[in-house]
Amino acid sequence: VQPNNYSTFYDDQRQNWSIMFESEKAAIDFSKQVCIAKCNSSPVLDSVLYQDLVLGEGQGVEGGDSLEIAYTGWLFQNNGLGQVFDSNVNKDKLLRLKLGSGKVIKGWEEGMMGMKKGGRRYLIIPPAWAYGSQGVAGRVPPDSTLVFEVEVRRVKLVKECSGSDGQSVSSRDSPAPSPVPNSDGFTAD
């Protein structure tokens, strides 16, 4: 995925190709289908498949960073999207999570690494990286492969240490003391 509705890829002869789409929606829909095709052509899905839909801006997130996420989750059924089992897209609250804390399924922890603020990504998560043979009563059957579309709305980089004056310093941004953050400590939208 490239800026301005472009996608680039290599064919099986390592020839580089670019496609320009008429709209962001067309580019995103194509990228989703590419991810589903990758899943359907894998003999065994044993890791998280992901496809960027929108790249986002700024620093890629790492373990320990805090994020606010908008997401929708589908069951993967009949080689494509099944029913939605969870979403916060039309709700007032975003999901807050700290990457690497173990509070979300392993597939999210893995699949969201490197995302940037404003980025959107499509994740296809095998059962072993999701809810496994347990499932979620009434929502996710046992041994379900899941599909998520996730969007990082806010990021708080947590690789911080305390400077000699007591102010927090982000080792990934600047050696200078950071300005006073907004009330919740997340960067503004």
TrEMBL record:
<keyword id="KW-0413">Isomerase</keyword>
<keyword id="KW-0254">Endocytosis</keyword>
<keyword id="KW-0963">Cytoplasm</keyword>
<keyword id="KW-0007">Acetylation</keyword>
<keyword id="KW-0009">Actin-binding</keyword>
<comment type="subunit">
    <text>Interacts with WIP and actin. Interacts with TBC1D23.</text>
</comment>
<comment type="similarity">
    <text>Belongs to the FKBP-type PPIase family.</text>
</comment>
<dbReference type="GO" id="GO:0006897">
    <property type="term" value="P:endocytosis"/>
</dbReference>
<keyword id="KW-0966">Cell projection</keyword>
<dbReference type="GO" id="GO:0030426">
    <property type="term" value="C:growth cone"/>
</dbReference>
<dbReference type="InterPro" id="IPR001179">
    <property type="entry name" value="PPIase_FKBP_dom"/>
</dbReference>
<feature type="compositionally biased region" description="Polar residues">
    <location>
        <begin position="164"/>
        <end position="173"/>
    </location>
</feature>
<keyword id="KW-0597">Phosphoprotein</keyword>
<dbReference type="GO" id="GO:0003779">
    <property type="term" value="F:actin binding"/>
</dbReference>
<keyword id="KW-0813">Transport</keyword>
<keyword id="KW-0697">Rotamase</keyword>
<feature type="domain" description="PPIase FKBP-type">
    <location>
        <begin position="64"/>
        <end position="156"/>
    </location>
</feature>
<protein>
    <recommendedName>
        <fullName>peptidylprolyl isomerase</fullName>
        <ecNumber>5.2.1.8</ecNumber>
    </recommendedName>
</protein>
<keyword id="KW-0967">Endosome</keyword>
<dbReference type="GO" id="GO:0005769">
    <property type="term" value="C:early endosome"/>
</dbReference>
<dbReference type="GO" id="GO:0003755">
    <property type="term" value="F:peptidyl-prolyl cis-trans isomerase activity"/>
</dbReference>
<keyword id="KW-0175">Coiled coil</keyword>
<feature type="region of interest" description="Disordered">
    <location>
        <begin position="162"/>
        <end position="189"/>
    </location>
</feature>
<dbReference type="Pfam" id="PF00254">
    <property type="entry name" value="FKBP_C"/>
</dbReference>
<dbReference type="InterPro" id="IPR046357">
    <property type="entry name" value="PPIase_dom_sf"/>
</dbReference>
